[in-house]
Design a protein that fits this description.
By secondary structure, the chain is an all-alpha fold. It has one domain. Helices cover 75% and strands 0% of the residues. The termini are far apart.
Length: 206
């Protein structure tokens, strides 16, 4: 596939703001609650675990689906798949539909990895889930997990693919720059995953 087409397809697929659309369907402007970020974590923290999970899965799918189509129908290789996923991450972070104010690209990165090297997704969640539960810092858990994945890609896939994952990590770190500052100052927002799912259940029972 043409590299420009890969980039454009990735960007516009990634720019579909599911973490805005899903809350909007149920009558909530996610930009006006919680952190105001148009991302799955803010949905999870503000509306509960189920809605947050739905948004995260859909955000991952907008990278996973076009990459899988590109690989299996149009003959893209893994490097091209990573390129498409990276531009999907840019689209997610800077969606044209929301004045370029989007999420932080973690779910899109996981969706990309699911398409090009699925076994490593297990490594991501093996780190992310316990770290997020123990520390309650989703930002820290995401960055540590992505950092570990970049090392794993260098080991299992070589320099070229490893550099692409480093690019994902760099983008996500930049998008998390304010979270990193708060982590250093020890005043980062906490997200209790278990309570988030309880919150959704309680809201559903009312």
């Amino acid at each position: 596939m043409n590299y420009l087409l890969i980039a454009i397809t990735g960007y516009f697929a990634g720019s579909v703001p599911f973490s805005f659309i899903i809350p909007w369907i149920i009558g909530v402007d996610i930009r006006k609650i919680g952190s105001g970020n148009v991302g799955g974590t803010n949905v999870l923290r503000s509306l509960g675990g189920i809605w947050g999970s739905i948004c995260m899965v859909l955000d991952g799918a907008k990278a996973f689906v076009p990459i899988m189509i590109g690989i299996h129908i149009f003959g893209m290789n893994i490097t091209q798949g990573l390129m498409m996923g990276f531009f999907a991450a840019i689209g997610h972070s800077y969606p044209i539909w929301l004045k370029f104010k989007g999420g932080k690209a973690v779910a899109v990165t996981v969706g990309t990895i699911s398409a090009v090297k699925a076994p490593l997704v297990a490594l991501f969640f093996a780190i992310w889930i316990p770290l997020a539960i123990l520390t309650k810092y989703v930002s820290l858990s995401s960055l540590v997990s992505l950092g570990t994945l970049s090392v794993a890609f260098f080991i299992t896939s070589g320099v070229k693919e490893g550099l692409w994952i480093l690019a994902f990590l760099a983008l996500s770190a930049y998008r998390h720059r304010n979270n990193i500052k708060r982590l250093i100052k020890k005043n980062e927002n906490k997200t209790d995953l278990i309570e988030a799912f309880k919150k959704h259940k309680e809201n559903g029972e009312k």
